[in-house]
Amino acid sequence: MPPEVKPEPEFQPFVPASAGPKEFTAPAVLAGVVLGIIFGASSLYLVLKVGLTVSASVPIAVLSITLFRAFSKAFGMRKATILENNVVQTTGSAGESIAFGVGVTMPALLLLGFEMHWLRVMTVSVLGAILGILMMIPLRRAFIVKQHGKLVYPEGTACAEVLVAGEKGGATAKMVFIGFGIALVHKFLTAGAKLWSSEPAAMLYTENEGTGTKAGLKGGQLSGELSPELMGVGFLIGPRIASLMIAGAIMSYFVLGPLIATFGEKLTEPVAPARWAADKPKDEKNPGLIRNMDPDGIRVTYLRYIGAGAVAAGGIISMCRALPLIIGSVGAGLRDMRAARAAGTGAAAVRTERDMPMTVVLWGSVALVLALALVPQLGLGLNLQGVLGAVMILLFGFLFVTVSSRLTGEVGSSSNPISGMTIATLLLVCLIFLVLGRTGPSAMLTALTVAAVVCIASSNGGTTSQDLKTGYLVGATPVKQQWAILIGAVTSALVIGLTMLALNAAGVHYTKKGLPADAVLAVPPDAPTERPGRPYDSGELLDPNEYRVVHVRAGEHEKVKPGRYLVTAEGRPVYRADVPISQEEKTMDNGRDAPKEFTAPTPRLCASIRASSTGRWSGRSSSPAR
Question: By residue range, what is the domain housing residue 462?
Answer without folding.
Answer: 26-182+319-506
